[in-house]
Amino acid sequence: MTGYTSTNDEKESALQREYMRQAADYTERLGKKLGRKPRYCVVTFGCQMNARDSEKLSGILERIGYLPAAREEDADLVVYNTCTVRDNANQRVYGRLGYLKSLKSKKPHMKIALCGCMMQEQNVIDRIRESYRFVDLVFGTHNLYKFAQLLVSMFESGGMIVDIWQETDRIVEDLPVSRKYPYKSGVNIMFGCNNFCSYCIVPYVRGRERSRDPDEILREIEALAADGVVEVMLLGQNVNSYGRNLKHPLSFARLLRRVEQIDGVRRIRFMTSHPKDLSEELIDVMKDSSKICRHLHLPLQAGSDRILRAMNRRYTREQYLALTDRIKTAMPDISLTTDLIVGFPGETAEDVAQTIDMVQRVEYDNAYTFLYSKRTGTPAAAMPDTVPAETVRENFDRLLKVVQDTARKRAARMQGQVMEALVEEVNEQDGSLMTGRLSNNMLVHFPADSGLIGRFVDVSLDVCHGFYYTGHIVS
Ligand code: SF4
C-alpha cells in the first residue's frame, strides 16, 4: 500500500526558518517605530488540536521577535484560530471581528490574521472579503506551517492576503512551539478524518486522515520529556485508526507501548477515540500500563440506533454497551466521559429516552452535551424534520439533569481516597490553593505552594463537590 508522506518535510522546515529570519527584520523595524517590542495575541476557539496549533503560531511569532499580550487591546498583531464545528463559534468570531475593527481604527499599524477550520469554508471567505476588508491575512488548516512565509507576504503587501488550500499530503512539524504549560503538552499524531459522520464538518475542513511517522512522534516526545514535560496528550480526530495509512502500518496500541517507554513521561492521555475503531489490543495496553491515564473519552453522540444510523456513526447501542462493559471489566477504576448531541434532525422523544438510558447504563463520569448545530455542506444539513427549538431545549435540559446526577454519584465514590495529582496551577478563585489533576481527569483543589506546579503529589480527596474535590496533601 502506498502511504501518505507522513515524515517531516525537512526542506520545507528549512525554508520556513528562512522566512522567519526575513519576518524578524520586519518585526525589528516595527519595534523601532513603536519604541518597544511588538506584541501578539493568539485567540483559540475550539478543540485541543486548535490549542496545539495556536502554540505553533505563538512559537513562530516569538521566534520572529513578538512578545505575548494577554488581550487583543494590547496587541499589534491579533490571530484568531477559529473552529467551525458549531455555528455559534462562527458567530462569535464575526462579533469579535467587529470589535477588532474599532481597535484597528485607533491603531492603524495593527494587523489581524484569521486561520483554522472556519477559514476552510468558501462562504466564510466570501463574507470576509466582502464585509471585513480590514483583515490582513487569512489562511487555513493545511498551510499553517507556512505561517512565517505568509507573515512576510502580509508585511510586504498593502492588501488582504488570502491563502486557503483544499488539502495537503505534507506534515511539517519541526517548527518553533511556545508551550502554554511547561509540564504538559499535546502531540499531534494524526490529522484529518475519514469517517464522515453526517453532522460533522471536520472531514471537509481538515481533510483526509494522515498519520505521522511514529519515530518522529517519539522523537518529539523524547525532546518534550527532556524539557520537563511529564504528561503528554496524543491528539487526533480519531486516534484509534492511527497508523493505518502509514507505509508500514502500526496500530495506535503499539504506538502507545513505545511512548510508554520514554523516560520522564509519567502520564499519557489521548483523544479523540471513535468507538467503532477501539481495539481489544488498546484495552489490553491500557490495562497493563501504569502511565496511560485512567480516563477514556468515548463519544456516543446518540443513544438510539435509528439516530446513530442517520449520523453514520457505524456502531449500535448494543455494540457500544458491550465495548464499555469490556473496558470497565478490564479497568474497574476507569472514568468514562462522552459527547452527546440533542436535536439531530428527526429526533423523537423515544430517541432522547434512549440516550438518557445509555447515560444511566454506562454511568459516565461526565458528558459534554451539545445542541445539534446545522453545518452547511454536511449530509445532515439537508435532512428534513428539524426538531423545534423549544423541544430541543426541553430535551437538552432533561438529559443534562441525568448527566449531572450520574456524574455526581460517580465522583462521590472516590471521596476519602488518596490519589496522585499533577499540580497544574494556582486556583483561580483562591490563591492559597493549588489545582491538581487526577489520572481520571478530575480536579482537586488543596492548600499548597506554587513551587509544586508541575510536580506529582498524593492528595486526600476529602470532600466531593460534584465535579471536583477539595483535599489536602498527604506526605
Ligand atoms: S469521527 Fe465523525 S465526529 Fe469525529 S471528526 Fe470524524 S467525522 Fe467528525
Can you describe what's shown?
This protein is α/β, with parallel strands linked by helices and 475 residues long. It folds into 3 domains: 10-163, Cobalamin-binding domain (Rossmann fold, 3-Layer(aba) Sandwich); 184-411, pyruvate-formate lyase- activating enzyme; 418-473, Nucleic acid-binding proteins (OB fold (Dihydrolipoamide Acetyltransferase, E2P), Beta Barrel). It contains 13 helices and 19 strands. The strands form 5 sheets. The protein has a 6-stranded parallel β-sheet with strand order 2-1-3-4-5-6, sandwiched between helices. A hairpin with a 6-residue loop joins strand 15 and strand 16 (433-438). Helix 8 runs parallel beside helix 9. The longest helix is centred in the N-terminal third of the chain and has 25 residues, at 10-34. The radius of gyration is 23 Å and the shape is globular. Residues 1-5 have low confidence and may be disordered. Bound molecules: iron/sulfur cluster.
